[in-house]
Each structure stands twice: as C-alpha cells, then as structure tokens.
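Chapter review: from sequence to fold.
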Amino acid sequence: MPRAWRPREIILRPHITEKSMAGLQHQNAYCFVVAGQANKIQIREAIEKIFDVRVKNVNTLVRKGKTKRFRLTVGKKPDWKKAIVTLEPNYRIDII
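The token string follows.
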C-alpha cells in the first residue's frame, strides 16, 4: 500500500512568470511546481488544504530538462512537473 502524501510534499513552490501572472489576472489560474509522481486529484486536494480554496480545474504538464554543456562535459537539467490550477470565481490565493 503506498504511503499518504502530505500537501507540502506535493506542492513544491509557485511558478511565477509573466505568462502565469497574466493567467492569474484573466482566468483566476495559478501555476505551481509539483512533485513528479503526483496526479491531478492529489494536487487538487493539496491546494484546497494548504490555501483553503475551492479548485475548479487542474491541468498538468511535464517540462523536459535542458541539455547543458560545460567545456567537454555534457549534462542535463532535471525534468519537472507544472500544474495550472483554476479556482472557483469567488476564491483567490495571495502568492506575491
């Protein structure tokens, strides 16, 4: 039986960019960096517990890490998972 996740293990940090701030203003959507193994249901429950809001929709995507070079060594940055969480109209999250 898999162990239960704590909400702070699922939601790692907010992902703040110009594009995510535009979504915040127009669609009440917030971006978060989440654990790679977490699914949409776990992300929804974690956001609702941490911020005490109602989640309308969760979209996820996996960003592939970039390949980087330093002299003769080639390396790769890690892959990471992003969740775009849309809230019900009457709710907000203060992340700034």
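Two observations follow directly from the output. The longest helix spans residues 40-51. Residues 41 and 73 are 40 Å apart (CA to CA).
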